[in-house]
Description:
Elements: H1 3-11, E1 13-18, E2 39-40, E3 44-45, H2 47-56, E4 61-66, H3 71-80, E5 91-96, H4 110-115, H5 118-122, E6 128-133, E7 137-138, H6 142-151, E8 156-164, E9 172-176, E10 182-187, E11 194-195, E12 198-212, H7 213-224, H8 233-241, E13 247-251, E14 266-267, H9 272-281, E15 309-311, E16 320-322, E17 325-326, E18 331-333, E19 336-338, E20 341-342, E21 347-348, E22 353-359, E23 364-365, E24 370-376, E25 381-382, E26 387-388, H10 392-398, E27 400-401, E28 407-409, H11 411-418
Parallel strand pairs: 1-4, 1-6, 4-5, 8-13, 15-18, 16-19, 17-20, 18-21, 19-22, 20-22, 21-23, 22-24, 23-25, 24-26, 24-28
Antiparallel strand pairs: 2-3, 6-12, 7-14, 8-12, 9-10, 9-12, 11-12, 27-28
Helix pairs in contact: 1-6
Amino acid sequence: MSQREVFLAAQRTIAMVLAGGRGKRLHDLTRRLSKPGLAFGGKYRIIDFTMSNCVNSNIRKILVVTQYNSHSLLEHLQFGWTFLNGKFNEFIHVLPAQQSLESDAWYSGTADAVYQNLETIGAHRPENVLVLAGDHIYKMDYRRFLEDHLEKDADLTIACLEVPLADAREFGVAEADASDRIVSFVEKPQQPTPVPGRPGYAFASMGIYLFKADFLYAELARDAADPTSSHDFGKDVIPYLVPRARVYAHRFNRSHIRNMDKPPYWRDVGTVDAYWEANMDLTNVDPDLNLYDYDWPIFTHQEQLPAAKFVHSGPHRNGVAISSLVSAGCIVSGATVHRSLLFSKVRVHSHAYLHEAVVLPGADIEEHARLHRVIVDRNCRVPIGLVVGEDPEEDARRFHRTPGGVTLISQRMLDNLQEGR
């Protein structure tokens, strides 16, 4: 298939980004915003990666489905994602959950979220519909995904990541034959089936689906009429389709955006530990995720802010940051920041020490605070002399401490601490 044919097929494809996730396992980080709207990497939101993949792949008809705690996400999309050109039929439309004459319920599953918006999708007459999760971190050229889909004349193609068998129990797992046609699909199996030719690995679904449009319309209507279905792609729709339709696996290693010799990068930052680890990886000399690849930019909205500032230089007080990312609008004043990531408008005051800290926008770290292996939530006011990361039992009593030894600090927790609760 020629590149021109793939280019034109991308223009006839519409993307549905499912961005309504609550992110319960992230605790206070998503108390007032949805997981796709959570800040990541110093200046981005998680959803920016999926959206940028669409734009860079020339798939520029994008519908974003929102539901829980969507206000901050809607603002971000409004301010940062209005640059597509409607004159060329490029757009990003936001579809909040809403009541209608046909339905008075919120989305009951991923398939239902798409089904309730079929009229909007159909109005644009796409040939293919790309269904995407808006809460994962990865860089992928969807055109290569689309090329596989078209060459195999698939009704449905599922993007799959090869993961060790022990980890595959947390995913939907596809069993495929030698041609990568899927012959079974099971959610979170106890005994995952290996990839052909790779006995230690399984095909894990990435939650990325490419459908023939007419096929999708018919199958979602069928699923919506089934009272026994939970209306979820992984639990209901895909297992039903596998023995009845042409369903194929697409190997992510064919379409991921390469970063030197590193393995394909995909992260579900759905827990506090996973979120901390993915952010901390960016402080490495050669991180697994390359944000400095100007051929595949990650677009976002960012306030117009001054450059980061480091002040005071003397024998007893220096403002320094080592092996760290420091975003615009930050001031490190007589403090030491080591292997940490500071989001925008963070203040770190004299004699404070941060090590392996992820500090979200607007946080203020007062004098003599010592923070190790922490996440500080946005707009927190960390009091003078607070020590976190040196006494696990004390950290767990005052804050949320994870199984991986990361301590999450939120303003709610700090307020309770000051009130003696």
